[in-house]
Design a protein that fits this description.
With about 110 residues, the chain is mainly β. It is built from no helices and 9 strands. The strands form 4 sheets. A 3-stranded antiparallel β-sheet has the order 5-6-9, with no helix packed on it. The two termini are about 20 Å apart.
C-alpha cells in the first residue's frame, strides 16, 4: 500500500484504496501496468521498486507468468525480467531467487 505516500508491505484496513491495485494490459504488447487505485500511479522497477506517474516507461511494464491453476503468478519486470519479490518486509526486484521461493509468487484476485 501507499497509504502514507511511500510504498509499503503492511496490513491494510478494509476499504483502503492505497492497497487496491489494478493490473491493466499495455496495448500492443503482452505486458501489464500495475496501477494504484488511490493515487493513480504505477509500480515501477529501476534499481528498487518505486511508484511512478508514467505508465509508458518500460520500468512500469510487467509480465505475468502463471505458475499453477489457482491464480498464482510470478511477476517479472519487462526491462530486465527481474522477479517482483517480497523480502524482509520490502518489495524488491531480483534475478537472484530460489526456484521454490514463495516470496516471489503472488495470488491475483479477480
Amino acid at each position: 500500500n501507499n497509504q502514507d505516500g511511500a510504498l509499503h508491505c503492511s496490513p491494510a484496513e478494509n476499504g483502503w484504496w492505497s492497497a487496491d491495485w489494478e493490473i491493466l494490459p499495455v496495448p500492443g504488447s503482452g505486458s501489464f501496468v500495475i496501477r494504484n487505485r488511490w493515487k493513480n500511479n504505477y509500480l515501477c522497477s529501476c534499481t528498487q521498486v518505486t511508484l511512478c506517474d508514467n505508465s509508458g516507461t518500460a520500468a512500469a511494464h510487467w509480465i505475468l507468468e502463471e505458475v499453477s491453476g489457482n491464480s498464482t503468478y510470478i511477476i517479472r519486470n519487462e526491462t530486465d525480467r527481474a522477479r517482483l519479490i517480497f523480502r524482509n518486509g520490502q518489495l524488491t526486484c531480483s534475478n537472484s531467487y530460489n526456484s521454490n521461493d514463495t516470496q516471489s509468487t503472488w495470488i491475483i484476485e479477480k
